[in-house]
């Protein structure tokens, strides 16, 4: 991977902070012509540094009144079991993120549901009902904030 310069980092920081920002606004912020800025963005995409852009949503206004983290431990840790579990869970409408982890638990699921009954049913149906699952622990999320500062370690 090539070393990113200050302008590349500034472009990435703009996109990280606001995925909906226009190329013209980025170009103005980093002091480049819009065409040069767009070239850099395309290069960052082609190099696999920019993988896409995400928006943030107010899940409560969408009916998701409860968010939780669900820690899951599997009985078997072979590649197929892990990959299948991850792919099947990430496809569920309640699941916002799936983290495959080292340590005591194998997965951490970030879920969002309308109410406690839905959470219970989701856990029973989609998680504990699986033969490969041996332990589940659910923790409610009271609040969640996300940094809008780009982490860069170059």
Report the count of strand segments: 4
- Give the name of the CATH architecture of the largest domain: 2-Layer Sandwich
Low-confidence stretches: none
Strand order of the largest sheet: 2-3-1-4
Say which CATH homologous superfamily of the largest domain is assigned.
Answer: Lrp/AsnC effector binding domain/regulation of amino acid metabolism (RAM) domain
Structural class: alpha+beta
For the record, give the distance between the C-alpha atoms at the N and C termini, rounded to a whole number.
Answer: 11 Å
Please indicate the count of domains: 2
Q: Give the C-alpha Rg.
A: 20 Å
Keywords: DNA-binding, Transcription, Transcription regulation
Domain HTH asnC-type: 4-66
Organism: Alteromonas alba
GO molecular function, one term: sequence-specific DNA binding
Description:
By secondary structure, the protein is an alpha+beta fold. It has two domains: 6-47, Winged helix-like DNA-binding domain superfamily/Winged helix DNA-binding domain (Arc Repressor Mutant, subunit A, Orthogonal Bundle), CATH 1.10.10; 59-141, Lrp/AsnC effector binding domain/regulation of amino acid metabolism (RAM) domain (Alpha-Beta Plaits), CATH 3.30.70. It contains five helices and four strands, in the order H-H-H-E-H-E-E-H-E. The protein has helices at 6-17, 23-30, 34-46, 79-90, 116-128, and strands at residues 66-74, 95-100, 107-113, 133-141. A four-stranded antiparallel sheet has the order 2-3-1-4, covered by helices on one side. Helix 1 (6-17) crosses helix 2 (23-30) and helix 2 (23-30) crosses helix 3. The chain is elongated, with a radius of gyration of 20 Å. 15% of the residues are buried. The model has no long low-confidence stretch (mean pLDDT 95).
């Amino acid at each position: 991977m090539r070393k990113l310069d200050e302008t590349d980092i500034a472009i990435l920081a703009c996109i990280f902070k606001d995925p909906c920002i226009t190329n013209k606004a980025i170009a103005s912020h980093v002091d480049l012509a819009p065409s040069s800025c767009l070239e850099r963005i395309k290069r960052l995409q082609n190099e696999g540094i920019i993988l896409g852009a995400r928006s943030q949503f107010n899940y409560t206004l969408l009916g998701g009144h409860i968010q939780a983290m669900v820690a899951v431990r599997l009985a078997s840790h072979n590649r197929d079991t892990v990959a299948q579990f991850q792919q099947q869970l990430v496809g569920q409408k309640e699941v916002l993120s799936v983290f495959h982890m080292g340590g005591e638990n194998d997965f951490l699921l970030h879920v969002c549901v309308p109410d406690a009954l839905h959470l219970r049913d989701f856990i029973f149906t989609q998680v504990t009902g699986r033969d490969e699952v041996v332990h589940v622990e659910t923790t409610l999320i009271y609040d969640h904030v996300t940094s809008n500062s780009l982490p860069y370690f170059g």
